Amino acid sequence: MKEAARNQVAAPGLSGGLGRSILALAVPALGALIAEPLFLLADSAIIGHLGINELAGAGLGTTVLQTVVGLMVFLAYSTTPTVARAIGAGNTARAMAAGRDGIWLAVGLGLVLAVVGFFGAPMLAGAMGAQGQVLGFAVDYIKYSTFGIPAMLLVLAATGVLRGMQDTKTPLYVAGYGFAANIVLNFILVYPLGMSVAGAALGTSIAQWGMALIYLWMLVPRIRKAGQPLAPDVRGVLGTGRVGSWLMLRTLSLRLALLATVWVATGAGALTLAAHQLVFTIFTFMAFALDALAIAAQALIGKELGAGNAPRTNLLTKTMCRWGVYFGLVTGAVLAVIAPFIGALFSTDDAVRQATMVGVWVLAAAQPVCGLVFVLDGVLIGAGDARYLAIAGMINLLAYLPMLYAVTLFQHTGSSAILWIWVAFGLGFMLARAVTLSWRVRNDRWMRLGA
């Protein structure tokens, strides 16, 4: 009772420095989040001067790579709350053990995926529709990228460990060094050494291994200092994998929703597909900022729950939800203003510009809902509520698919198609996610206090 009373008294005082705490984690996290897209942009810029076939092949290869790494993001999302809980409970040894086990799981999965990717590259590229020279370049890109997959996954897990320790600055610095090294390596391997597309993939793999080694250099001494062996605990690895499997199912439901949306846009014609791609690119860019808030939520919520502080967790949740909605209102207003002009940055076709404008206006209206969804997602990941997130994800997907099907029934094209596709995705799907996530935090049942 006395402890609860102290927590109740302490909770209001949190608001004074809460904004600084959120920003201290969210701003560096935003910089680290854009690192992976920058790696792919660097590859595209360097490969683009080789020729159309090379660029097309690398594009298919990066699509495969992004899909694999995207599904493995649970390595960061499952490690962050576990480490944060232990830190909040004052148990550094347990935090380092969880981090170690997450890293071992990442390396194991990475080795398996690397072998499958190397020998399955021709089948994967063929399944994407590649033929002729494009097929050859896609296979090269996938094969030489597989050398870096264990490092990429190790980086994900290590990043999760540091986020759980309330450190998002170090991942930003490491990502910056990796990006700089990637550009230099790719240029040397592609041009002076004449390795073409394979050189760009190999350069990225080497840069990823450099980042992985930096993380190991930092974390191994901390694990030893905490009195933990470097060898994995099988139960710990299996526990991380069990939580990760639920988070992977959650991610899979999101990927399926995106793929279904692209399928409907493709069926509506090339103009609709082109405009959808532009609107989705803007949505992805906005998502980086919102995801930075979600990462801050993961780390802060996990720490407060580990400390057993329910009042602070409640205050933090409410504050971050407000932040998400407010940020969505601001970004929505900006998008609404620039919508008539943004299409000109990407296309000279008037019809594509018009359709893009319509889609961006719908996206602008959806931004406050998106802000709430991203923050609540981070809150529940931080709470380790992976099972609910997975089940809710599948429910949301089942609710969304009929909306998309309704769009196809009316055979919309051009601006009309973009309007209804983005009403279905930006408003319908995101609103379904907002409802299921808000329902979960309506009371304190989602909170599990303690390490």
TrEMBL record:
Protein name per its UniProtKB record: MATE family efflux transporter
Which regions span the lipid bilayer? 21-40, 55-77, 103-121, 141-162, 174-194, 200-220, 252-274, 280-302, 323-346, 358-376, 388-407, 419-439
Which UniProt keyword terms apply here? Answer: Cell membrane, Membrane, Transmembrane, Transmembrane helix, Transport
Q: Give the family this protein belongs to, as stated in its UniProt record.
A: Belongs to the multi antimicrobial extrusion (MATE) (TC 2.A.66.1) family.
Write one Pfam family the protein is assigned to.
MatE
The UniProt entry lists membrane topology as: Multi-pass membrane protein
Q: Where found, per UniProt?
A: Cell membrane
